[in-house]
Amino acid sequence: MIKVNSVVTMHYELKNVEGDVLDSSKGQDPLVYLHGAGNIIIGLEEQLVGKTVGDNVSAVVAPEKGYGMPVDALIQTVPREAFGDEIDKVEVGMRFQAETEQGPVPVVVTSMDDATVTVDGNHPLAGQELHFEVSISEIRDASQEEIDHGHVHGQGGHQH
Ligand code: ZN
User: What CATH number did the domain enclosing 115 receive?
Assistant: First the structure.
């Protein structure tokens, strides 16, 4: 059964409320994570406690326990001049790393007009309810070293 310090191997599919597939491990290696270490979305981790090998789990995760709610402070409108010569390449939907006082932040261009460019630094899934389908294929106890590091070693984990 999955509990704190279990190493869990699972396949997963993530859909939004409309049923669009946003992410999936299908056709790839399964996800391997250390339970209780914040390796995965907290709302999903909570719903996997007590599950066992062979279980298929449908988990609905509210935004508050997923990628959070969008924050207005992360939406910024800047003058076109801020982009210098690069402005010719800027278009709505473009993603890039914005340099901020807190370091680089991934942002997306959400709108542009004659004078300004608006960028949004919120996570693309902020504010969204997440619908996970998970199938658990393996559970083992973590090693002391994995617990100390807070992540999985070996296949599907850190190679160091
Ligand atoms: Zn490590």
Answer: 2.40.10.330
Domain that holds residue 63: 6-67+125-149
Question: How many whole angstroms from 23 Cα to the centroid of ligand 1?
Answer: 25
In the predicted model, what is the mean pLDDT of residues 22-47? 96
Averaged pLDDT for residues 54-80 = 95
Centroid of ligand 1 to alpha carbon of 143 (angstroms): 11
Judge whether 15 and 21 are in contact, CB under 8 Å.
yes
Tokens coding 90: 């800027």
Report yes or no on 155 lying in a domain: no
Identify whether residues 55 and 30 lie together within a single domain. yes
Q: Ligand 1 centre and the CA of 141: distance in Å? A: 15
Angle at 62 between CA 60 and CA 54, to 5 degrees: 25
- Residue 35 CA to ligand 1 center (angstroms) comes to 15
Structurally, the chain folds into a number of domains equal to 2
